């Protein structure tokens, strides 16, 4: 039977989703991973060549680093998840015409736990 198998599902995912899956696999470990190891971490859903292409894109964007002194062809994230998320938030705020209004909208959507954490961070002097 024909069907769309794992390969068909992977092809329908956006480049951003694929990059996120590869980054998640790298963030889940403390050591650099080879493309084959990343492929296995994401359940072998993507073809090896697709994983390699995604890694090249992430490397070109400065989001992953090639492991220079370890195993050949291994990659590690350039930033942790929190750093990358914070950078994206700053970029989003700087794109709009009114960053204060955007920040205000963002804050109104926080959960009580997130709001409490933000208040604590601001009270500690984090600016």
UniProtKB/TrEMBL annotation:
Annotated GO biological process: negative regulation of DNA-templated transcription
GO molecular function: DNA binding
Pfam families listed in its UniProt record: Penicillinase_R
Domain of life: Bacteria
Cleavable signal peptide: none
Keywords from the named record: DNA-binding, Transcription, Transcription regulation
Keyword Cell inner membrane: no
Family: Belongs to the BlaI transcriptional regulatory family.
Protein name per its UniProtKB record: BlaI/MecI/CopY family transcriptional regulator
Organism listed in the record: Streptomyces alanosinicus
